[in-house]
Amino acid sequence: MEIQQLEYFKVVAETEHMTHAAEMLNISQPALSKSISNIEHEIGVPLFDRQGRSIVLNRYGKLFLESVNKILEEYNRAKQEINGLIMPGYGEISFGFIHTLGMEVVPELMAHVHKKYPNIKFTLTQAASMYLLELLEKGELDLCLSQRIESKVVEIEWIELWTEELFVIVPENHPLASRQHIDLCEIKDEPFVSIKKGNALRQMVDQLLKNVGISKTNITFEGEDPHTVAGFVSAGHGVSIIPDIKGLSEYNVKKISVREPICERKIGVSLVAGRYLSPAVNQFKNYLVEYFKGK
């Protein structure tokens, strides 16, 4: 049995339609049918239930598909590893990052990366940290830049890269706008513009507020990203806590440092512990550590 036959079977099993599968594989339907028949003959059982022109994967087929997926995954992994040894600096990387890094940090990073690794192809995903975690769990991301994230499904390895301060932002005409520093408890009675739930920054801000006795805030709006939050603060809908994002000075807000407690977040690279990393992904992970160490 050849790898190509297994790849043919996988497509037929996933589509459960011989004609569509043949079109996807760019081969004739008779040739595809013969390939599937040869597999069934070699295994000794039918893998599909055939009803007229329709085919449905049966219990033997479902069991075989699980094994085929593992075989093809290992085969592709071995090819990647060997190609990485033969041609270092080549490969594909799926890389994610949280919203706040998309204005400046990641664009600058990728400009340097493309110069250093011109032959590596990147697929980039910008999303909330909880969605990035979901993609990591599924194996759809190799690495992501985020705050520390934890999974109930897999073990996440997180390497700290840098720390950034979180600021209270208020409208320019707010009574606190003249202050350079405040204690976080001073915004206790203020209406609050928040990041939406499902974001690690939201979790961190909620915990910071809770630690100073602000367990319930009067949330007037929940934004997808800090720029939206800054826009609503600028319009007078409340105050908020966000990092110093690029372009913040363009909003009619005042950024205020917090004396007590320390308000900061740590950003690092997250990956699934123990999961295979191609040579290209390993190179990029090590580059991230060196790049941000030099910042």
From TrEMBL:
Pfam entry (one): HTH_1
HTH lysR-type domain residues: 1-58
InterPro entries: HTH-type_LysR_regulators, LysR_HTH_N, LysR_subst-bd, WH-like_DNA-bd_sf, WH_DNA-bd_sf
Keyword Protein transport: no
One Gene Ontology term of the molecular function aspect: DNA binding
Record has Cell membrane as a keyword: no
Swiss-Prot/TrEMBL keywords: DNA-binding, Transcription, Transcription regulation
Cellular component terms per the entry's GO annotation: cytosol
Family according to the record: Belongs to the LysR transcriptional regulatory family.
Protein name: LysR family transcriptional regulator
Native organism: Ureibacillus terrenus
